[in-house]
Write a structure and sequence with these properties.
Elements: H1 2-21, H2 25-35, H3 41-65, H4 71-94, H5 97-120
Length: about 120
């Protein structure tokens, strides 16, 4: 029960922070799942991806209501992504937890660099 409450708090906090800062929730979910809920890196990444399914469904539905979804492009991207997901899952399960953590840490560093670069750009007048 405590784990479910913790997961709910994590979901709310990570969702709010990712919405405020414009970064993907996985960047916040995965480290928290690994360090707070004591999941392996692979379990954290997989759990984060599974947690995104209802968020994506709700977001797509809401944006469809506003007329913002281009279904043809979305269908192509979604179908092609299936191959990428299968390949990524195969690679992820073949790597050690240590290698996955280092790769994820590298991704976090790259995202941090990008955020700093975008914050330093002057705003358009």
């Amino acid at each position: 029960m405590t784990e479910l409450v913790l997961a709910a708090v994590l979901g709310f906090a990570a969702g709010g922070l990712s919405g405020m800062f414009g970064v993907g929730g996985g960047l916040l979910f995965v480290p928290t799942l690994v360090f707070v809920l004591d999941l392996s890196q692979l379990e954290g990444q997989a759990t984060s991806l599974a947690a995104m399914i209802p968020v994506v469904a709700l977001g797509a539905w809401r944006q469809h209501r506003y007329g913002n979804v281009r279904w043809r492009a979305a269908t192509v991207v979604g179908l092609v992504s299936i191959g990428g997901v299968a390949a990524g899952a195969t690679v992820a399960t073949s790597l050690s937890d240590d290698v996955l953590r280092k790769l994820f840490a590298s991704l976090l560093v790259l995202v941090a660099i990008q955020l700093v670069r975008s914050a330093r750009r002057p705003l358009p007048a």
